[in-house]
Amino acid sequence: MSGEASAGAGPGAPEPWGETRVVGKPLPRIDAWERVTGAAVFTRDLTLPDMLHAAVLRCPHAHARVRRVDLAVAARRPGVRAVLGPDGPGAAIPWYPDREGKPTSRLLDPDCRYQGEEVAAVAAETLAQAQEALAAVAVEYEVLPAVTDMERALDAGAPAVHARGNRQGERFGYSRGDLEQGLAQADAVVELTTRSACSVHTPMEVHCSVAHWEGHQLTVWDSTQGVFAVRAELAAALGLPLSSVRVVSHFVGGGFGGKLQLSKHTVLAALLARAAGRPVKLALSREETLRCVGNRPPNRLTVRAGARRDGTLTALGLEALGTGGAYPASATSGLLVGDLYRCANVRTAHDNVHVNAGPGRAFRAPGVPPAAFALEQAMDALAEKLGLDPLELRLANLPTGSQTRGLPFTSTGLERCLREGARAFGWREARARARDAGPLRRGVGLAAGMWGYEGDPRATALVTLLADGSATLNTGAVDIGTGTRTVLAQVVAEELGVPLERIAVENADTGTTQFSPPSGGSQTVLVNAPAVRAAALEVRRKLLGIAAGELHAAPGSLRLEGGAVVTAAGRRVLLKDLAGLAERVSLVGVGERAPHPPGKLALPFAAHFAEVEVDVRTGQVRLLRLLAVQDSGRVMNALTFENQVHGGVVMGLGFGLTEERVLDHATGALLSRGWHDYQLPTALDAPASIDWLPVDPHDRECNSVGAKGLGEPAHIPTAAAVANAIHHATGVRPLEAPMTPPRLVALLARARS
Amino acid sequence: MLPAFAYARPGSLREALDLLKDAASAPLAGGTDLQGCMEDGVARPARLVSLAAVPELRGLEVRPDGSLRIGAATPLAELAAHPAVRQRHAALARAAASVGSPQLRNQGTLGGNLLQRPRCWYFRGDFPCARKGGGTCYAQDGRNARHAILGGGRCVMVHPSDTAPALVALDAVVQLAGPRGARRVPAGELFVGPERDVRRETVLAPGELLVEVLVPAAPPGARSGYDKARARGSFDFALVGAAVALVLRGRSVERARVVLGGVAPLPWRSRPAEQALEGRALDEGSLAAAAEAAVAGADPLAENGYKVAMTRGIVQRLLASLAAG
Ligand SMILES: Cc1cc2nc3c(=O)[nH]c(=O)nc-3n(C[C@H](O)[C@H](O)[C@H](O)COP(=O)(O)OP(=O)(O)OC[C@H]3O[C@@H](n4cnc5c(N)ncnc54)[C@H](O)[C@@H]3O)c2cc1C
């Protein structure tokens, strides 16, 4: 339903919705048919006429200097149409900027700092020919000593990943109040150190780019989360104007943060395509995706927490060590320690080191799930020490604003997440019911979380109502599998009363659609939906103006529903029968995302509750049930909301229970090279039902649709809740993630002896 | 990437054996292991000889005396679902049912399961390890959480098969056929440890095929089972597996077979655990004694000490379920 007046959600924004007719309903995806039948064309599926296939030669050593590359033989192999080595055109494109923006490497750099770094690339008629040609490339390496364990990276005598040492910038941190004083004021203090393994995004669709030149115009189909971000980086890398680069990404099989930025393979595809004068496809293998296109950095986090007898927190400290791998990448997060709970005395310190391993990238709430794993276990331990229910300890320290940024929240659903979640889960009963004898132990745990990014305020959308009463939506937003297209079409349907099946969405093409930031950071809906709504409202205004004239009614008295205009008296006129619309052919509305509410932060919150059964004989954990309570503001579509929660939770279980990138320490070689040794959770690792409960604080200030982010907050507390449940069940603190049977059975054995 | 290869599909055992005289040929059953081996470069056959149309390798029968004859090409899913196998040779049915995932059990065969190559990530990776003819076992001082605590030495890989321990526990016999004729080998003698030959896992000679597996009838009072701990709910090898076959007389264990998987380079028959059970009732005391005996002599590596506790746990869990009937 519409609203024109400006109030609530920032300057210039329309009135927030009250009741909605289409938004919020559990509507199936508008592209479900394509997805289910396989008709959807993902970049990995794309074949262009005359297209070549490319493959990349990768350094087999974790640390080496390329002395010489001989491509002559490879270039003569059957089917080969282009080769590119460290001396080739474009090889010197600067890569991996540090915090100051200074590049630390090049596209094809003779200094290889992890096993799998790009050395050369070949394009041939078939993939098999490209790979055969790679085998014919002669490379002379000077093998250098490597360090892979981040806890050894700063040791004296550790091999230097970069000439200027293994620190990624100086130690940094945040402080308010006085941590030591806060600890001194506490009646109970806990300190614990958690370690979490490196995990890898490994989305269902591998990273893939198809590059095609027409004169100086480059079109790239890319499996990416952000077509505009990739265009900007690609144009800069190739020295082209933005207008010469078009990036398209229609269907994407997942990203999780690993496809937010330009990757080397995309540039290599473009360079090879230019050299060959033919389109080039470069799809990474599953193994390559596990090596080269990002990961969630491993963390070692020490948390100190102190509270008074009544549960009031007096101190929170964090010492964080992480590694973004061989190149600059953020590795740890201070968000939760700084902002999840009200606390006067906080200090965080972060060290980020280099090791000879694949570089990190943003991974679903970068650094925050590991931080939740540490902080929320510390809170649990603190509650235990104080003799408080862990729920009560959290309720005693609820924030109302960001203490690190000094801004109030537009809404803080954390209290409701905790209270309503505890009620729905039966927290107190379950806590009392725990089984603590016999080989199968049961326990329950909870953890809270929040997300700290309020989204890019810039996005433009275009809505067009056509003469027959159907509509198109034009938006640059990528639908990475979350249902973006569907949710945004619902917004159009809501405002124009056009049935969903008569709305076509054109999206994620820099050549034809409007700017949108990357689909990541849990911003996609809350950034794009308001822009779409503004565009639809403009069309609505024009349409009601036409209808009012033809029907001799005041615009405000008309309703739009079922593809028709309805008067106050109940008269229905189909949109296609409006002469004014037919005459205009189409009505266009351009919508901009309004600015953020000034002086406030709109952020989502969550609390997860888990019940586990642990077999103390084997360390196997069975998740009996999990309840995810999410304050993400308005539920835009109950089905896509549920999908996001399921995905976030299962990925959280992967982080918490099964996933671990394994490197050989002696050689730096990747050992978990496929989906067998890199263990994603299976259907049997998820609980039979993942329950979810939305908490909607009816936030009228956050933006004009009332939605906050979901993708990341649905993932943040999961592993921590499971950890606390394992502790409740067994009495041991699982401080290392993933909490595998090997780790747990060893902990339990140690606890017994 | 899968390298190029030729393909043949013989219609009889004789024809298959003829084709396999060529040393560059390899038998192809379900291919679930062989394909990965070829992709990883640990097998480089120029020709695959499909066993799919060889009638001698098919069929699963219960013979009049209660014994089983299982063609080597029998899919694991069929074995796992077979009522007689489930009832009288539960260890085998349970082991087959715990392999990988439904797809792998539909495609994978019993023969292929016994003859699959090790899963060690150094062996499958780009390391010239002892099993590939090099001089070093990289796992020995490397990332060895999934490796052996028993019977290691020159190679500390663990035998990956779920069905192998079950067949050893059930005193099964395998029938082999080769260019020089047929022979029978007890399942317990099919496997080769690294001290005997670090390059191979079984006694099969080049060109030899596993034709069928014979499982003797279950005597009165027999009970058997298989249990495995893995790192995730499905689609995973045993961190520790155990097959136990017991013959009970009254409450007393007359005969016990305890065979472990996932802890040694071959299915590991634990005679100390069997002795801890034989002649005793299945009670808390004998269960604990057998669990303790099962890890006698265990010599863990840097990252797999947990397997000692886990082996105890699995043996105890399995025996407890057998004791409960
Ligand atoms: C992801 C994954 C998970 C797995 N999980 C498990 C698990 O949990 N437990 C487990 O036990 N296994 C597991 N496996 C391993 C294995 O692939 C299957 O168990 C399967 O049974 C192998 O049978 P197959 O018919 O596919 O063998 P194939 O791949 O066809 O053959 C395997 C080997 O045996 C040879 N061979 C096959 N049949 C004969 C014969 N009759 N005579 C002579 N040689 C023969 C082949 O030449 C080849 O060397 C897993 C495999 C994968 C890929």
Summarize the structure.
Chain A is an alpha+beta fold and 753 residues long. Chain A contains 18 helices and 31 strands. The N and C termini of chain A lie far apart (66 Å).
Task: Kindly list the characteristics that best describe this protein.
heterodimer; A: 753 residues; alpha+beta; Aldehyde Oxidoreductase, domain 4; seven-stranded mixed sheet; globular; B: 325 residues; Uridine Diphospho-n-acetylenolpyruvylglucosamine Reductase, domain 3; five-stranded antiparallel sheet; binds flavin-adenine dinucleotide
Gross morphology of chain B: globular
Count all strands of chain A and give the number.
Answer: 31
Task: State the low-pLDDT regions of chain B, or none.
Answer: none
Number of helices of chain A: 18
Number of domains of chain A: 3
Beta-strand portion of chain B reads 15-25%
Which whole number gives the mean pLDDT of chain B?
A: 97
Reading off the top of the CATH hierarchy, the class of the largest domain in chain A is best stated as Alpha Beta
Which strand order spans the largest sheet of chain A, edge to edge or round the barrel? 3-7-1-14-11-12-13
Number-wise, the strands of chain B total 12
Shape of chain A: globular
Spatially, the strands of the biggest sheet of chain B line up as 4-5-8-6-7
Oligomer: heterodimer
